[in-house]
């Protein structure tokens, strides 16, 4: 597994993107709308770090509860796996609770992702490798 990005909740997408740019981050592509999760996503990069800005566009988005608690803040690290199904099973066997079914992520070329929770570590995202 390799770190792919850090997921970062933001309430105001464009204002957040501009603030990241002012710190020297560079946009990777444009905002992508994820209709399934009801969030808009933009990747930005700096110094080899990739940050995923996640901005809900509807009150029933997957992160609407989280954003009330955390405001604008990082909330998950995503790991890319070349053995997606096997590694998902290994994580579950190792104490992670899978909180959704693997589903395509439009902002990452339709590759599948799944979120998991660990009692001591919190939330991670597992991303299917590009193959
Ligand atoms: Ni993510």
List keywords for this structure.
globular; 46% strand; 3 helices; alpha+beta; binds nickel (II) ion
Describe, in plain words, how this protein is organized in 3D.
Helices cover 21% and strands 46% of the residues. It has 131 residues and is of the alpha+beta class. Strands 1, 2, 3, 4, 5, 6, 7, 8 and 9 form a 9-stranded mixed β-sheet that branches. The structure holds nickel (II) ion (NI). Nickel (II) ion (NI) binds at residues 5, 7, 52, 76, 78, 125.
Describe what is shown at a glance.
This protein is an alpha+beta fold. The chain has helices at residues 13-22, 64-70, 84-93, and strands at residues 2-9, 26-34, 39-46, 49-56, 73-81, 97-98, 103-104, 112-118, 122-128. Strands 1, 2, 3, 4, 5, 6, 7, 8 and 9 form a nine-stranded mixed sheet that branches.
């Amino acid at each position: 597994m390799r770190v792919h990005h850090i997921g970062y909740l933001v309430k105001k997408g464009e204002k957040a993107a501009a603030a990241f740019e002012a710190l020297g981050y560079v946009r990777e592509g444009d905002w992508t709308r994820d209709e399934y999760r009801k969030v808009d996503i933009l990747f930005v990069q700096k110094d080899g770090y990739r940050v995923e800005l996640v901005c809900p566009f509807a009150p029933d988005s997957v992160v609407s509860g989280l954003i009330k608690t955390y405001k604008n803040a990082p909330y998950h690290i995503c790991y890319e796996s070349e053995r997606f199904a096997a590694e998902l099973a290994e994580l579950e066997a190792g104490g992670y609770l899978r909180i959704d079914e693997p589903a395509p992520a439009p902002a990452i070329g339709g590759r599948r992702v799944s979120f998991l929770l660990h009692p001591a570590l919190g939330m991670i995202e597992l991303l299917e490798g590009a193959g």
